[in-house]
Each structure stands twice: as C-alpha cells, then as structure tokens.
Amino acid sequence: MMTDKQGAVMPNTFAHSRVQLSDLADSVIRLALQEGASDAQVVFNESTGLLIEMRQGRLKTRTRASQSSMFLTVYRGHHQGTTRSTNYSPASLRETVQAACRIAGYTGEDRFAGLAAEHYLCRKSDHLDLWHPWDIDEASAAGLAQRIEAGIVSAGDGVVSDGVTVHSGLSDCFMMDSRGFTCSERQSNHLMGARALASKQGRSLLDFHFSSARQAQSLMIPEDIGHRAGCGALAALDTLPLQGSRRCPVLFDAKCALSLLEHLVQATSDSVVYRRNSFLANRLGEDVFSHHVSVTEDPFAPQGLASRSFDGDGVSGTTRQVVEQGALTGFFLSAYAARHLDRVPTGSGWGPGNLSLTSSLTQKGDDFAAMVKKLHSGLIVTHFSGGGPRLINGDYSRSLRGFWVEEGEIRYAVDGVTVAGNLGEMFRNIVAIGSDVTTQGALTSGSVLIDHLQVAGR
Amino acid sequence: MSQTGTTTRLVQAKQQLLEPYGISDAMLHDVMGRVLMHRIDYADLYVQSLRQESWSMENGVVNFGSFNVDQGFGLRAIEHDQTAFAYSQHIDLKHLREAAKSVRTIAKQGWLALPEPVPGQPEAIHFSAGDPLLIWDSAEKINLLEKINRLTRALDPRVVQVTASLGLSHSVNFVMRHDFYQAADIRPMLLLQIGVIVEQRGVRESASTGMGGRGDFTLFNDEDLLITLRTMVDSALINLEAVAAPSGGMPIVIAAGWPGMLLHEAMGHGFEGDYNRLGTSVYSGRIGERVAPPGVNIVDDGTLQGRRGSLNTDDEGHPTQCTTLIEDGILQGYMHDSLSARLMKLPPTGNGRRQSYAYLPMPRMTNTFMRNGQYEPEEIIASVKRGLFLANLGSGQVDIVSGQYSFQTALAYLIEDGKITAPVKGATLTGKGPETLQQISMVGNDLALDRGIATCGKSGQNVPVGVGQPTLKVDNLIVGGTRQR
Predict the structure, then answer these.
(1) B interface mutation test: which of A6, A13, A61 has the most B CBs within 10 A?
(2) Are residues A265 and A204 in the same domain?
(3) Structural domain boundaries enclosing A223
(4) Do B65 and A82 count as a contact with CB atoms less than 8 A apart?
(5) Do residue B213 and residue B284 come from a single domain?
(6) CB proximity B314 to A under 8 Å
(7) CB contact, 8 Å: B462 with chain A?
(8) Has residue B49 been placed in a domain?
(9) Please, which residues bridge with residue B167 across strands?
(10) ipTM field
C-alpha cells in the first residue's frame, strides 16, 4: 500500500537556481539587444513558502506556494518598454522580449528614462544576514498554530480564535543589465499572527497581533502573540459612545504611530514629489517636524525587515537622516524620480529601508503608561479603521477606535470615532514620543502624543 | 445560443490552456483520481492564463508601456471545512501530479467524494470574449491617452497636470471539479484611470476619475469621455473653494452611482457566506429579519451586460445570477461560494471568486446595488435642514465583526435649510452597517451604477466589482471634519 508521509519537509529549493537565472538573464539581455534595445535590465524573482491558517483547531487552509517571475525593462534611447512574465520557455521568453521592444517603439521620448548611473549601483549584496530558512513541516506549523490559539483563549472568558497564521517564506532576486552589472539577494520572511474574537452579550470585537522576522527564533513566543490579540479584543469590547465633537490631545499607540511614518514616506516619495502632488514637495531643508523629532533610515541593518542591498534600479541606499531635528533632509527617490528632480537616487525604488521615528526628549521611562499620564485628558488611538491624509495639502481625517482618558487614567473604550487635522500641523505638534518602541516591516516608532486634533463621536 | 456560448468557451479555454502543454482530459482525470485516493469532500483544478497590457501618459507623453503574461494552475482539496492548496506556474503532468500528492493529505486515505449537483449554464452571455489587447493597434491606444490630455487641458486654464493610464486584460480560465464537471470563462477587461491637478494663486487641488468594464473601446466614446473629464476637472476646481468640513453626527444625502460603495462596505461584505457560516458577521443568523426600512431593496447581480463585476460563470464553474440580499427591508440571503453553500446546506449563488490561480476562491460580490425608491433627488436634499451632501466618494473599509465601516469623501457640500451650499474639504465618514441600514429614510428614483472602476479587496485578494445606488438619505453618520459645530 502506498502511503504519503504526513507533513513532508518544506522544500528550500527554488524552481530555478542562481546559475539557471544567470543563464536566463544573459539570454534575455542578449535577445533584447538583438531586437533593437540600446539598454536592458532584467530582474528574476523566485519564491517558495508554506502557509498554515487554523481556526479553532481546524486547519482552515494549508498552502504551498512556489512562484517565479521575470521583469524586463528595455530602452531604445530614452524610450522604454517593460514586460513581466511567468513563462520561461524559450519561445515565450522571445515573445516577451519582442513585446518589450515593440512597446519601446511606441512610447514617447522621456529624457528621465534609462539605467541608473554606474556609480550609484550596488557593490556588495547578500551580506545583510537576511537568509535564515526555517525547515518547518506542516505538522510542526500546525502545532505552532495550536499554541497561538491556546494563547488567545488564555486571555479570558468569551475570547476565541478567529484564525491564526503560520507562514514561512523564502525569496531570491537576481538582477542583470546590459552594461554587465549583476546583483542578487536571498531573503527569508517568517510570520506568526493571531486574530482574536471577543464576544459578550451579543457584542463582538476583533483584534489581531502578529510577529514577523527573518529568523524563526526571533519570532515572538506563539502563546504571547495569541494572548496579546486576545487581551486587545477583550479590553476594547465594552465601548461607550463618545459624545459630541471637541479639540483635544491625541495619543497614537506605537502601532498607530507607524502610520505617521508611512504618511511621511508617501508624501516624500517619487512621483508625488516631482509632480508636486504633496504638501512636502517643496519643503526640503525646511522644518516640517518639531525640533526634537528626527527620522533615520538604515537599509543595511542586519536581519532588518526592510534591509536590502539594492532596489529595482540596482541602486544601494545609504544610512541617513531623513528628518534631522525637525528639518526635512531627504526624499525617497528611484533613479527615474531622482532624474526628474536632478537629485541623487536613494535606493528607495522598492520602498524605504528601516525607518525610525525618534525624539531627543524621550526618556527611558517613557513607556506607554507614562505617555498616558502625559496625555492627561484626551483620546488614545489603538486602531485606524479608515481614512488617511490627502497628500496634496495634508488634510487629515480618519476613523478609529481607542480609549478615552481623563486625569491620566483610561476611562472607557470608544469606537466609531473620527480625528481630523492637517498632517503638516500634526508633524509640528508632536509633543512626545514614547520609549515603547515597536517595529512593523520598515517602520519603527514608540507611541506619539500630538497636541490637539479635532475628535468627533456621535 | 447560451449552450453554444458555454461550449465554445470550454473548447477555447482548453485549446489555449491545456492543449499547448499536451494535457488531455484523460490526464486531468488521472490527476483528480490521485487526489481522490483520500477521503476528500470536494476538489477542483483551476487553470488560468492572464494577459495584461497597460499604457500611461504624463503631461502629454505616453512614456510608459507594459505587457504581462501570467499563467498557472491551482489545485485544492477540501475535507469538510479544511482546505489544502497548491499552485504552480508549470502547467504539465509532473507538476499537476505533485500538487495532487500534496493536497490530498488534508484527508485520510480512502474514497469518499460524491458528485455535486451539475450547475445550470448561464442563460445569456454577459459580455463578449473579445480580447481587448488585440482590438486596437497600440498607436490608437496612445492616441486615446493623448486625446485625454488635450481635452482635459482645454476644459480650464487652471489645469496644470494630467495623468492617464489605460489597462487592458484578457483572462481565460478553466475549472474541473472532483466529479469531472468542467466549465470555463473568458473575460476581457478595460480600465481607464485619469488624474488632474489644478492650480489657482499657488494653491493646488487634485481629482481623479475612471471608466471601464468588460467591453470594447466604444466604452470610451467621445461623449462619455468628455462628461467624465468635465466632472473630474469641476471636482478639482470646486475643492479649491472648499471650507473646513463639520465634525460630528448629522444627516447625509449620498448621490447616485459610485457612492453605492457605501452599501458595498456597510452591508455587502457582511452578507458574504464565509463570515455567516462562521457566525462572525454582524448579520449572521438574521435571514428573514427586518434589517432596513420598507422600500429598501439590495441585490448582487453578476449578469449585467458588460459590467466590471459581471461573470458568465464564477471561478468554481457556477453561473452568476441576480441574488436578492434585502427585499423591502427584509434580509433574504447571503452570497456563497461552493464551500459556504455546502456547509450551510444552501444552493451556491455564483459568488465563488479568486484573484487568480494562485489564490483560493472565497464568496465575493459581483455588482451590488440598491434598487430605485420613490423620491426625486431634489426632494431628498430639500428634506435636510443641516447636513452633508456627498457628491462623490473615495475609498472605503469595513470591520465585518463590529459592522463599523468608513469611507472618504471626494466631493461634498453642506446642506443648509434644504439647499446645497458650500463645498467642504475631504473628510472620513463612519457608521455601523446595521444602524446605517435602519437609518435609510429616503430612497431616490435615480439609480445609477458606477463607471466601471471599482476593485474590492478581501483577505489580500483583489477582484473587480460594480457598485450602485439611487440618491439616498441616511439620518445620522459621523463626519470627521475639523470644524467645531
């Protein structure tokens, strides 16, 4: 009788090896030049992964992923064409290259289009300690999922799992251009997450928590992830309506404070800058935050979740200050956007490197409880449910849930509340940043206290 | 006619997806047979080829063009409510067999699978199978974008920037179930997205718009194009004059058409079968109950001709249909995929959709809209003493469990003493779906669907949808403006 081994070990091998990718890249570039391209760049991405989703002890889904894709950009002088394909048969590759070259025959002249200048290109890659495969089989992953669920239930009565996730993923990126430049980077990404559902007397509330890391050992303990989600759902279950509308100070908890960094990146990246579609487009060198606030970028932090040796142009970033004592000192620019602005590319074509929002006023003891004392009376934001800034003028309006605070004490949870203001003013009105630092992806911040926003309830 | 359409699609899909790789029906049966060596309740193989083309224009120059080919298969096996899934970009017997071996372990060995009812076929074809990538020469596509630049700039001297992009796609998909039932769909899509920046005395404002659907280039005829562009430019210019939005709860009048996105968020997601099977939706277990005032009728209709959310058969081979969600204020039913239908012992509704072969199907909306009521739009506005008129919305979100939803305004005005007055700046609005439904106090007679630009995101998967509504009044929503009242 044939048997299947339950839970075979996840294969750590990609569909294509580096040698195969290098050969494929070489033939694609050569074809492109034959088809009339003056320059070409090709990027190959490989990924594999195992994803387990469990809900209340049942395996909701188990997915094995394996993907390969090729992204080709060809230039005919300053005319460009791009193609993406997942079919690497010789006939299909030829068609893909021909399509890119044909497109470059139709697109108009764009003097900003072209390969990045050589002196910006990455010189050293695969050295950021990003590669830590996790040899986890399906049964062990399911075991971890059960532990996360145990953590959720341990938060208290009326809390159940609405789904937990264990994911292990690997990727490889190989880039080559027609001027002989190549670079490559292998990365691992692992994640465990929990969605907790708290219910009482017909009311229900969902909260979630997750942990991600390059190395499985760096992930939070599964029970703790579940417990955090469960406690979050339970704490916010009993809401009281916030009456009326007022101006008051607002404390963004660390997770929500990351959104401020995200908006900073949105307002200072690529096309919104050169199209002047952002309230920060003309503000380089000017004070845009209060003087105690700085933002640093480190694309090379070992094992960093947003560490990378190069971006989509093959350009390396630099460790730098983006905001220095309140002044905006840098944008996030791909090679293309940088040419528009006659500036240096910042290696940001695939997003920012590890970014950190800090204040020179932050003391070691400024944990969340201390920040609530500083808030004194006002609103704590723990979840945004919608909205955002309008980048063109900074107008800011969001819906959220959180807690109402009086005399430095949390009084009750609130939901369906809005905050409104102007992002530019909010940046300048940051009063304090907590030492309760959290990181999600590229972004790191403590909780942020902002003086006066318009807060509305029913 | 319909049978011919169905058969033709299946033959065409096989010609394009399977025959080039030497995959015969016998091989498909061999692969499925391997899955069924375990006690599987349901399994399906989905094979897809997607071709996309896009062009974008910035300030008069079409400077970017791309072409994308993606193809592969996804194989899933389900044991009761547990799913195993594997996908690959290699459509060949080796990879199909590997996937079969991987997914069947969701269940123990043995034979269980029973045939499912064979779905009926669509009564009509809801869009042509024509490939928009081939209909027009690239030069004509570029001309269209250049024309948009010229027309937009000609509308007002304050226009300082115009961007536009044209996206075309053609997807061919084939699905085979564990009982060997086969179906296919061939789906074209066109999408035009346009943005404008205006400037007046150093102050800049922006607006964006779009048009699209499962049709051909007649969608972008001069008349409709000009109306769309004019509305967009007007919206940006009006926003130059906008005053601070009020804050707090107030009555809201929501315009017809695209603002139907509010229904999609406030109730549509809550009516999806998966959330109701698990009991997490705020509408769970409420079929037959009054959830809205009499006169409120909401449907999900995947059969509308050429609409962005329309399908012939869904991604599990079920024909789409018009599903009544709310009739005269009473909750009638949910939207299902095969999994939620089977576990809830209800018929499928043709709402099983997936972003691509690399994702699992889920219950998803198609075109969701509210039917006409009896009021003239002017009457509705005149009934409001102090409130807000939402002429256009941005995007929206919802928390299924609490029903709390939000959306952003793109163009809104104050209503004062029954009259539309000053435009207000962008603000987020929020409410609870079940409360909002109960607070719909007037429904207009001017039903309109959106221009074919909506994309719905759920659990990391995006699918094209349609939304729509007549003008309607909600008695109280919370407006997140900056102005203290």
Answers:
(1) A61
(2) no
(3) 18-235
(4) yes
(5) no
(6) no
(7) no
(8) yes
(9) B54, B191
(10) 0.93
Per-residue model confidence as pLDDT tens for chain B (485 residues): 445 678 889 999 999 999 999 999 999 999 999 999 999 999 999 999 999 999 999 989 999 999 999 999 999 999 999 999 999 999 999 999 999 999 999 999 887 777 888 888 887 888 888 888 887 889 999 999 999 999 999 999 999 999 999 999 999 999 999 999 999 999 999 999 999 999 999 999 999 999 999 999 999 999 999 999 999 999 999 999 999 999 999 999 999 999 999 999 989 999 999 999 999 999 999 999 999 999 999 999 999 999 999 999 999 999 999 999 999 999 999 999 999 999 999 999 999 999 999 999 999 999 999 999 999 999 999 999 999 999 999 989 999 999 999 999 999 999 999 999 999 999 999 999 999 999 999 999 999 999 999 999 999 999 999 999 999 999 999 999 999 86
Domain boundary among B192, B223, B240: B240
Domain boundary among A215, A235, A255: A235
- Answer whether B402 sits within 8 Å of A415, measured CB to CB: yes
A153 shares its domain with A204: yes
Number of structural domains found in chain A: 2
Any domain includes A240 = no
Chain B interface includes A139 (CB < 8 A): no
Integer angstrom CA distances of residue B208 from A36, A51, A204, A273, B232 = 37, 37, 37, 18, 6
Q: Is A85 on the interface with B (CB under 8 A)?
A: yes
CATH number for the domain that contains residue B125: 3.30.2290.10
Does A46 share its domain with A113?
yes
Rounded CA-CA distance A116/B184 in Å is 45
Q: For residues A181 and A51, state if they share a domain.
A: yes
Q: What is the pLDDT of residues A144-190, one digit of tens each?
A: 999 999 999 999 999 999 999 999 999 999 999 999 999 999 999 99
Which residues 227-246 of B have a C-beta within 8 angstroms of A? 245
> With contacts defined as CB-CB under 8 Å, which chain B residues touch A82?
64-67
Question: What is the interface size between A and B, counted as CB pairs within 8 Å?
Answer: 238
CA closest to A93 among chain B residues:
B69
* Domain-located, residue A11: no
Measured between alpha carbons, how far apart are the two ends of chain A, in Å? Answer: 67
Reduced DSSP (H G I as helix, E B as strand, rest coil) percent helix, strand, coil of chain B, to 5: 25, 40, 35
Partner-chain contact B67 A82, CB within 8 Å = yes
* Residue A111 phi, psi dihedral angles, 5° rounding: -70, -10
Same domain, B210 and B317: no
DSSP assignment of A105-144: HHSPP-TT-SPPPGGGB-S--S-SS-------BHHHHHHH
Q: Which of A59, A244, A401 sits opposite B248 (nearest CB)?
A: A244
Largest CA distance in chain A: 75
Is any Cβ of chain A less than 8 angstroms from the Cβ of B399? yes
Residues A209 and A76 in one domain: yes
Residue A390 sits in the same domain as residue A286: yes
> What length is written for chain B?
485
Record: contact B247-A401, CB cut-off 8 A? no
Of A59, A84, A106, the CB nearest to B68: A84
A contacts of B139 (beta carbons < 8 Å): 106
Name which of B109, B138, B427 is nearest A420 (Cβ-Cβ).
Answer: B427
Contact B198/B156 with Cβ under 8 angstroms? yes
Q: Is residue A334 part of a domain?
A: yes
Say if residue A265 is in the same domain as residue A185: no
Supply φ then ψ for residue A183, to 5 degrees.
Answer: -155, 160
Residue ranges of B 253-282 with Cβ closer than 8 A to chain A: 278, 280, 282
Q: Does residue B485 belong to any structural domain of this protein? A: no
Nearest CA in chain A to B249: A458
Same domain? For A227 and A255 the reply is no
Contact A227, A152 (CB under 8 A): yes
In chain B, how many domains are there?
A: 2
Contact list, B101 vs chain A (CB under 8 Å): 4
* Helical H segments across B36-137, by residue range: 93-103, 132-135
Q: What is the CATH number of the domain that holds A204?
A: 3.30.2290.10
